[in-house]
UniProtKB/TrEMBL annotation:
Protein name (Swiss-Prot/TrEMBL): Kinase-like protein
Comp. bias regions, Acidic residues: 77-86
Gene3D superfamilies according to UniProt: Transferase(Phosphotransferase) domain 1
Molecular function via GO: ATP binding; protein serine/threonine kinase activity
Annotated source species: Periconia macrospinosa
SUPFAM superfamilies: Protein kinase-like (PK-like)
Origin organism lineage: Eukaryota, Fungi, Dikarya, Ascomycota, Pezizomycotina
Example GO BP: mitotic DNA damage checkpoint signaling
Length: 500
């Protein structure tokens, strides 16, 4: 599902030497380190690499200098191609220096690491196994190579594993030193777990450079299922308490991932009148929803109003504790293009993996009542609506798609169209300008309205959760003023007056 591929010359040479040692070890029964080769995918025969050839020539030249001047810098610091001129004769007779085994380290769920709870450990080796610890799974270089070229690489330098909260793949340092001896995309891993939330990332282990990359298989449903089975089995085998069921399964990052600030964007979650919403995460494995809104001269006032609503309701929820029932604005990011920005990203939390729409879709048509889970979520959503109303706000666009679901909790989403209502006042109707037609109360289109407009919308949501379909079979709102809608109103009253 993922690979770690040597990138710079030193890492390529180290990889080749490790494979040489491991394949020799397989032919000697007393050796115990050959199991590490199952984490390596290597070509059928050594290949010639001109860059490696010249790099080794430079290293040899530097060794000669060091023998004459012991205070000279390490050979790994000399990579300037101007240090040595390679003539045709030299290149011909030293060609063997460019022959190396090429390939990558592989991560497979059917190739379990030696310590599954710790994960895939990378470091230097092979080495004798200490009964108090364990050797690495991914040998980045031999012990002898490390002495000469990678002095800061440790036998247990770093590790890879899945996070128990959402099964995201992460990397962590196993070195206590404050020096940045392990980095990903330039960020030091000292004292932290680093979520590998982009399709490909650059890893440095001391002076060895690698390219970490997910495979196409990692995006398949089969991999997601095997990942669950692997993690459940891992805890049973290690005699550890099984983790709580995850509310959200982190999908594998996609190729050409877009990054907004610290957030790497993933799959789309929905689309609204003002923009698109995407799943996003950062390297701390924080998961959010990002709403991307394009700004034009015509939309700028509406965007400004939406941002102001989010900011106000976020502060309101924090101050008076909304129970986490109202989506919050975590940050705002302007996307610059040229001399100005014409797109804005609203970073919102929590990210809800499902909405009430998913519950409605699972209701069998003609059901005799609302399920217990649906009733809990519906009640929680009503609590969120009550919080808004108690503080003078109307949501103005309540519908199944705008009520997020996390476990048995509800979160009111898309509060950008919410309106504040002064006590005792009403909001003048603006037909066809906002809201969703199937959930608009009559007064939203015909006269002035107040908080009761949200009550009408929640009544329709409750009906859908009970029966699995919308109670009113009209493509357009029958309440909109105009002669052309008169026949729709007549038809509505004829069909539904008694029920209402």
């Amino acid at each position: 599902f993922a690979v770690l591929r040597p990138s710079n010359d030193l890492a390529k040479i180290a990889f080749s030497e490790v494979y040489d040692v491991l394949t020799r070890g397989r032919q000697e029964p007393h050796k115990k380190d050959d199991s590490a080769s199952r984490f390596m995918e290597v070509g059928p025969e050594p290949e010639y690499h001109k860059d490696v050839h010249h790099f080794r020539l430079r290293m040899n030249k530097q060794r000669e200098r060091q023998s004459r001047r012991p205070d000279q810098a390490s050979v790994t610091e000399v990579e300037d191609e101007t240090d040595i001129e390679v003539d045709d004769e030299t290149e011909k007779y030293s060609r063997h220096l460019g022959m190396i085994w090429t390939g990558c380290y592989i991560f497979r769920l059917d190739h379990q690491p030696n310590l599954p709870y710790t994960g895939w450990i990378m470091g230097k080796g092979p080495t004798e196994v200490d009964p108090r610890t364990h050797h690495a799974d991914l040998y980045l270089c031999t012990m002898e190579f490390a002495k000469k070229h990678v002095p800061n690489l440790r036998p247990r330098h770093g590790r890879f594993n899945f996070d128990t909260t959402n099964r995201a793949f992460f990397m962590a340092s196993m070195v206590r030193s404050a020096l940045p001896m392990l980095t990903v995309n330039g960020d030091s891993l000292t004292g932290r777990m680093y979520s590998l939330n982009q399709y490909h990332m650059t890893v440095w282990a001391d002076t060895l450079q690698y390219k970490f990359e997910y495979t196409q298989y990692s995006s398949t449903k089969e991999f997601m299922q095997q990942r669950v089975a692997y993690m459940n089995k891992q805890y049973v085998n290690d005699f550890l308490p099984k983790p709580s069921p995850t509310v959200f399964e982190m999908p594998t990052p996609q190729r050409n991932t877009r990054t907004i600030g610290q957030w790497s964007m993933g799959k789309p979650l929905g689309k609204g009148a003002m923009g698109r919403v995407y799943l996003a995460s950062n390297t701390k494995n924080e998961v959010v929803a990002v709403k991307m809104i394009e700004i034009t001269a015509a939309t700028a006032p509406f965007v400004e109003a939406e941002v102001a609503n989010f900011q106000h309701l976020t502060e309101l929820g924090k101050k008076y504790f909304d129970g986490g029932r109202i989506v919050r604005l975590k940050e705002k990011t302007n996307v610059f293009r040229g001399q100005s920005f014409n797109e804005i990203g609203l970073i919102m939390e929590p990210m809800t993996p499902n909405t009430v729409s998913d519950l409605v879709g699972g209701v069998y048509n003609g059901s005799n009542g609302m399920s217990i889970k649906a009733a809990r979520i519906f009640r929680d959503a009503l609590e969120g609506v009550k919080f808004l109303h108690d503080h003078g706000w109307i949501h103005c666009d309540l519908k199944p798609a705008n009520i997020g679901v996390i476990g048995d909790r509800a979160v009111l989403l898309d509060v950008g169209q919410a309106r504040y209502l002064q006590p005792g006042s009403m909001i003048k109707a603006s037909p066809g300008s906002d809201g969703t037609p199937g959930y608009l109360s009559p007064e939203r289109e015909q006269a002035a309205y107040d908080h009761s407009a949200d009550v009408w919308a929640m009544g329709i949501v409750g009906y859908e959760l009970t029966y699995g379909f919308h109670p009113f079979l009209f493509r357009e709102s029958p309440w909109r003023p105009g002669r052309q809608y008169g026949s729709l109103r007549t038809a509505f009253h004829s069909k539904y007056r008694t029920a209402i």
